[in-house]
Amino acid sequence: MTDARGPARPDGERPARHAPGTPCWVSLTVRGPAAAQEFYGALFGWEFRAGPQRLGPCLRALLDGHEVAGIGRLPPDRRLPVAWTPHFASDEVDVTAGRARLCGGTIGVGPLDVPGAGRLAICSDPAGAVFGIRRAAPCPGPSVAGGPGAPAWNELLTFEAESVAKFYRTVFGFAQEPVVRADPDYVTLHLDGRPVAGIRGVGSALPRDRGPHWMTYFEVTDADDAVARLVHLGGHVLGPLRDGARGRVALVADPEGARFSLLQRPEAVPAGRSGG
């Protein structure tokens, strides 16, 4: 995940606040949190502790002692797909959520205060992809900025990129900068000149049981080894390993069907280049 937080403090730690619009959190909703805890703990080396319970049972995943993701339980009466959801930082969640509604989005949850987590809202864009808006509560130390086991990138898969990109640019103030790509229907969203998320238009190739949705990429040291470990743990490989703009990528799903990607970064990136 692009690190767009404020400047480092004199002691070398970064403040907990993320710049508005930055992907600042990812959450997973599942039917079996205990099984998800076992799967992701073995896959990424995560440890867990109880999280805020206002929206139902919740776990916080930790990597090297720092929170990297949340796992919650789907209500048994809700027929929703299990899915990873990115949350974007906002200093004024109510204002940002109101702007999303005015631009054609839908507010599914909140805005509301969650003790220990801050103020948040769960929304969907005009095409139906779900995302969160979050003003995080202060935390005692720096969060993980990257590395194996941490979220590294978020990408929206939707019918057509540009029309949905206008929504996110208006809601969060993203900029669109020219990026040369082989994929003609791809938009990279920027903050302060840095890429923070991507939007890929795939048209009719969208899974019928999913529709438009956000995809979280988790960094791994070795993609081939991570895929083998995922399969051993009961996960599913949805596409062959491929080399992309950000590195070696595998599209996968956990045992309940939540889709995500494994990303092995290139060993070296030429100076002056940035992914998108």
From TrEMBL:
Residues 22-136, 150-265 form the VOC domain. Residues 1-22 are annotated as: Disordered. This is VOC family protein. Gene3D superfamilies: 2,3-Dihydroxybiphenyl 1,2-Dioxygenase, domain 1 (3.10.180.10). CDD domains: SgaA_N_like. It holds the Pfam family Glyoxalase_6. PANTHER family: GB|AAF24581.1, GLYOXALASE-RELATED. Residues 1-16 have a biased composition (Basic and acidic residues).
